[in-house]
Amino acid sequence: MEEWLTQPEGLADRLRALRTQAGLSGKELAEANGWAPSKVSRLENGRQMPAPADLYAWARACGADDTAAQDLLRMLGEVHAAHRSFRRRMRQGQAAVQDSYNQLVAESRLIRHFETVYVPGLLQTADYARRLLTEMVELHNLDIADVDTAVATRMQRQQLLYDTTKRFEFLLAEPVLRWLLASPEVMRGQLDRLQTVVGVQNIRFGILPLGVPLATTPQNSFQMYDDVAIVETFVGETTYRDDEAATYTRAIERLWTEAVTGEDARRLIVRAAQEIQS
């Protein structure tokens, strides 16, 4: 998110410009708002996400009018719905991206996935992950092909599944079990891996089955880390917070009402594995 706060003429630049135009030092601005001086530095350098109240306080201390405050809020909204292209994210290789997700999971208490295509990275086998990450190199014409390192980094994330202070929810549409995104042998191994999380105490695992009436349309895959939602597409990922993220929360809660869990979910996994053509 820092890259969106600090992009040229972005929110951090705008905050710095307002303070400079007002003739205030960082210390003076902090004192006017009752903040620690370090907060001004963090906001101006994109190391802290401002709250709406911070922006109002900043504008007021700088003597800016309501139009300027509203402009800051608009820019904050754009950051909250930040879209990051995979090409840009992966310019230093895929391992760095995987490490950022490791940190995101480590910092979250409730991790939720709704998937219509892929097995979530937290549940992937190394062979399945390697197939997907290899495709990313080709699809995005990446300059750095660090697939093996990226796979190892993604596998490290799975250690967090054993942290019982966290709760994980994985809801998969049934086609996830049946897309042959890898060889039959790899897919069977992947489906076997899914069975191991059924019934684990801090993991809620379910499948949205085909052939049953649905009250909620499974429009797209998404991930949630506490109150942040991330949606991935062919070209990149978009992050949502606040009201937009709340919509995804409502969607996944509605989808769960029509899911099968426990032994019913296990039976769907076993059936999909049995029907894979060699």
Automatic annotation (TrEMBL):
<dbReference type="InterPro" id="IPR010982">
    <property type="entry name" value="Lambda_DNA-bd_dom_sf"/>
</dbReference>
<dbReference type="InterPro" id="IPR001387">
    <property type="entry name" value="Cro/C1-type_HTH"/>
</dbReference>
<protein>
    <submittedName>
        <fullName>Helix-turn-helix domain-containing protein</fullName>
    </submittedName>
</protein>
<dbReference type="Pfam" id="PF19054">
    <property type="entry name" value="DUF5753"/>
</dbReference>
<dbReference type="Pfam" id="PF13560">
    <property type="entry name" value="HTH_31"/>
</dbReference>
<feature type="domain" description="HTH cro/C1-type">
    <location>
        <begin position="15"/>
        <end position="70"/>
    </location>
</feature>
<dbReference type="InterPro" id="IPR043917">
    <property type="entry name" value="DUF5753"/>
</dbReference>
<dbReference type="GO" id="GO:0003677">
    <property type="term" value="F:DNA binding"/>
</dbReference>
